[in-house]
Design a protein that fits this description.
9 strands, 22% helix, 172 residues, eight-stranded antiparallel β-barrel, 1 helix, single chain, alpha+beta
């Protein structure tokens, strides 16, 4: 026969055995609700964790000059700089008239505040003017050092100092 003390002991034992399970269930419940509320209240940020370079984006050629001479075939073309890492990325100019000046696509890397290395060889000076236009300048040395081209300078000769002015692509 069970005495009152036995009954209390078994009730206490039952409560003692159930209490940790109840605490664990409540702890798990609080964690689950907390995690859900955090994930529901904020969107996951998938943007890069580095500061974007100021020239990242799409630009329109508004002026192109080779040794001071306007090169109309470049006007209106788009150039896009995509930043893939802290100080490097890719560029795209699908409609380029000359791969030796601006290739259809390639890579870039920042060397300091005004220099880019483009496609691992061309040291490109890059800066902004007061109107917010992107300016680039670089020099291409002649591949035709023997001057065997029939009509020098050659029609396809891209040697010289190039200056490009780009306007930002208008935002819709």
């Amino acid at each position: 026969m069970m005495t009152r003390k036995d009954n209390l002991d078994s009730t206490y034992a039952m409560t003692e055995n159930q209490y940790p399970a109840k605490l664990s269930f409540e702890a798990v419940l609080y964690l689950a609700v907390g995690c859900l509320s955090l994930s529901c209240s904020k969107e996951i940020d998938t943007r890069p964790t580095f500061v974007q370079v100021p020239f990242s984006g799409t630009w329109i050629v508004s002026e192109a000059r080779e040794d001071g001479v306007l090169q109309n075939e470049w006007l209106g073309l788009e150039l896009t700089f995509e930043q893939l890492k802290k100080d490097s990325g890719a560029y795209y100019m699908p409609a380029t008239p000359s791969d030796s000046v601006w290739a259809k696509s390639g890579g870039w890397q920042v060397t300091d505040s005004i220099h880019l290395v483009r496609d691992n060889y061309a040291n490109l000076y890059i800066f902004f003017n007061r109107e917010g236009k992107l300016l680039t300048t670089f020099t291409i040395e002649s591949a035709d050092t023997t001057r065997t081209c029939p009509d020098y300078p050659c029609v396809l000769d891209t040697t010289g100092t190039w200056l490009f002015t780009f306007d930002p692509l208008p935002k819709n």
